[in-house]
Design a protein that fits this description.
By secondary structure, the chain is of the alpha/beta class. It has four helices and six strands; from the N terminus they run αββαβββαβα.
């Protein structure tokens, strides 16, 4: 996978190995990034709760500011989906990210002047980024299609 990214001009960064934190290959769970810097997340799984340390070390060593910390409940980075500049979709299933954590993160985003919508997801998807993908300029349409089963448009209010 790394070679495919590099062949397409993507700069890849790697976390330092740590024998204790052997599951940190899922690096997107411990943090999320936006134009304000890094959001350090509160990972649900007990065996991964110290992953935030690696995330903070990575951002500090690369000069990336830490923006906020999710503290009001568990929240994982895979539930933070930037649809487009100015609009974020934030998911939760209760088993990994919880509603309280998602609502806190949404308030952080709104405080920055962006719109944020929280949306529950089925636990089978684990994270919001597992149930939708932005492709080209079709982000809003794709989100509407992939979350239509919710019975409401989670992008309502995002201006997309």
């Amino acid at each position: 996978m790394v070679s495919i990214y590099k062949e397409n001009g993507v700069t890849c960064h790697h976390l330092k190995p740590d024998d204790v934190l052997h599951r940190k290959l899922f690096a997107r769970d411990s943090s999320a990034t936006g134009p304000w810097g890094a959001l350090i997340c509160h990972v649900q799984l007990k065996c991964r709760r110290a992953d935030y340390v690696t995330a903070i070390e990575f951002y500090q060593s690369n000069g990336i500011p830490v923006w906020k910390f999710a503290t009001a409940g568990h929240f994982e980075g895979g539930d933070f989906v930037i649809l487009e500049p100015g609009g974020v979709l934030i998911g939760y299933c209760g088993e990994r990210s919880e509603k309280e954590g998602s609502e806190q993160v949404a308030s952080f985003v709104r405080d920055e002047g962006w719109e944020a919508v929280t949306a529950p997801i089925s636990r089978e998807f684990v994270h919001k980024d597992g149930s939708c993908r932005a492709v080209g300029g079709e982000a809003a349409g794709g989100v509407r299609r992939c979350t239509g089963a919710m019975g409401r448009d989670p992008t309502q209010g995002l201006g997309v």
